């Protein structure tokens, strides 16, 4: 109805998965990097989870487009199957012929095994993608695990990509599925868009649809991010309805009034902003320039505690700690911390890690990451900018979150060496520098404790200053430092 009025060639905010409108935000690209790493490894299972509408299908489509031509794929879009139906569906998807009468699990498994061995002999890789995998029965998941037992000395002959809502992670924690859980070599939980990505997402879809000018006022963009929580599907619904409202009001651009009209019609209530400060990327660039200029060369972090020591008092969602902890989580667009869950262990599900210990306050600010300070009454004070000051009863302890680089596994540090080598290229003094030498060079230049290893503090500094992942201190903070 509004296409001609706004000079559009097609609907820009259809919820159909049109590849022409494929937009990969920073988080979608990060998810894609983790999953691509998993397909290159030797494991059998890859896991992608996220709330409804966050773009899991978008990521999976992008992943499949990157697969080499020698890849055979099977799609299972209806996971409400028993073991026999699963095996039969896989045979159908791979084009394997079998007798329809008197089929048994063994006959179907033998057919699949023969097919996988033949595909491997021809240099082909076989991948199974299962959507809505949170509905899979434990017995079916166990059958999938048994299929992945077929392997060579180096690789599995079958890779399984499980895509589902957060309940899938709960399902995989069941005791009878612990063997399968141990075979997941790459996992990613897709979070909503950041405010800056919401603006880019809207403008990108409008451009593809043929828009020759901006159709959404900045205030309307901020409001739709707040209303949608950064979830792409909800963004599409709200923006589509807001364009219709603007057409009905005969105005040239969508403002806050039209966005509120769309929200009322769709039953969306205004929420508190869920993202970090929208200008954190600018702050990161400014702070990085200050750091490279040598402003932190005089640091001495000799009073730093080991960043991930087990004897640290765990951060849990107790009533005393709730407010500061939840403010930190809101800046990372994370859901509410489950009661009595230990924060540092819980955030691992979202590809985040903790850095914690004791530092002087100015040194905590220099990390350029939102942080929380432990007070002597057991509560936590949130620090989001450098103009804040610690309360008088601060114990000296702090904690911050940092995003894991692609392929990173806490228990296997060697998994992110490629990222480290690329990131640390500016610190290389000669071609013979190994990672330990590069770590020492970085720590000496930036005033970090010189351990010659990539501990949590060093990795937090690296991701804060050499990636655009996650929130930073506000732009006002960087300008005043």
From TrEMBL:
Ranges for the AAA+ ATPase domain?
42-196
> SMART domains under this entry?
AAA
By its UniProt entry, which InterPro entries does this protein fall under?
A: AAA+_ATPase, AAA_22, ExeA_AAA_ATPase_DNA-bind, P-loop_NTPase
CDD domains in the record: AAA
GO MF terms on file? ATP hydrolysis activity
Q: Name one Pfam family in it.
A: AAA_22
Looking up PANTHER family in the UniProt record yields: GENERAL SECRETION PATHWAY PROTEIN A-RELATED, PHOSPHORIBULOKINASE _ URIDINE KINASE FAMILY
Name the UniProt record assigns to this protein: General secretion pathway protein
Lineage, top ranks: Bacteria, Pseudomonadati, Pseudomonadota, Gammaproteobacteria, Alteromonadales
């Amino acid at each position: 109805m509004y296409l001609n009025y706004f000079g559009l060639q097609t609907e820009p905010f259809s919820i159909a998965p049109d590849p022409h409108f494929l937009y990969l935000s920073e988080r979608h690209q990060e998810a894609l990097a983790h999953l691509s790493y998993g397909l290159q490894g030797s494991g059998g299972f890859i896991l992608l989870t996220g709330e409804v509408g966050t773009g899991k299908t978008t990521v999976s489509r992008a992943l499949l487009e990157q697969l080499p031509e020698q890849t055979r794929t099977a799609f299972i879009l209806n996971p409400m199957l028993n073991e026999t139906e699963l095996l039969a569906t896989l045979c159908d998807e791979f084009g394997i012929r079998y007798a329809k009468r008197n089929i048994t699990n063994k006959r179907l498994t033998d057919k699949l095994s023969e097919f996988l061995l033949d595909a491997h002999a021809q240099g082909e890789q076989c991948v199974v993608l299962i959507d809505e995998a949170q509905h899979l029965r434990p017995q079916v998941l166990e059958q999938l695990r048994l299929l992945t037992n077929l392997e060579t000395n180096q690789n599995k002959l079958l890779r399984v990509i499980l895509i589902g809502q957060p309940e899938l992670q709960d399902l995989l924690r069941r005791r009878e599925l612990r063997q399968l859980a141990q075979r997941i070599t790459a996992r990613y939980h897709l979070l909503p868009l950041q405010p800056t990505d919401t603006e880019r997402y809207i403008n990108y879809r409008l451009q593809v649809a043929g828009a020759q000018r901006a159709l959404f006022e900045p205030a309307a963009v901020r409001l739709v991010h707040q209303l949608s929580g950064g979830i792409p599907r909800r963004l599409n619904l709200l923006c589509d309805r807001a364009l219709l409202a603007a057409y009905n009001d005969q105005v040239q651009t969508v403002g806050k009034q039209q966005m509120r009209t769309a929200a009322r019609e769709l039953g969306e209530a205004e929420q508190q902003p869920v993202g970090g400060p929208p200008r954190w990327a600018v702050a990161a660039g400014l702070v990085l320039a200050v750091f490279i200029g040598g402003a932190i060369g005089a640091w001495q972090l000799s009073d730093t505690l080991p960043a991930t020591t087990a004897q640290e008092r765990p951060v849990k969602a107790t009533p005393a700690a709730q407010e500061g902890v939840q403010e930190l989580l809101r800046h990372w667009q994370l859901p509410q911390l489950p009661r009595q869950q230990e924060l540092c262990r819980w955030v691992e599900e979202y590809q985040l890690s903790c850095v914690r210990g004791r530092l002087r306050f100015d040194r905590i600010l220099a990390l350029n990451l939102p942080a929380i300070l432990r007070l002597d009454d057991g509560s936590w004070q949130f620090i989001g900018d450098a103009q804040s000051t610690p309360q008088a009863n601060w114990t000296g302890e702090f904690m911050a979150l940092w995003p894991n680089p692609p392929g990173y596994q806490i228990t296997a540090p060697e998994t992110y060496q490629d990222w480290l080598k690329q990131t640390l290229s500016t610190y290389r003094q000669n071609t013979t520098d190994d990672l330990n030498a590069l770590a020492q060079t970085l720590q000496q230049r930036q005033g970090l404790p010189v351990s010659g290893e990539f501990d949590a503090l060093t990795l937090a500094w690296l991701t804060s200053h050499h990636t655009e992942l996650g929130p930073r201190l506000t732009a006002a903070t960087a300008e005043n430092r």
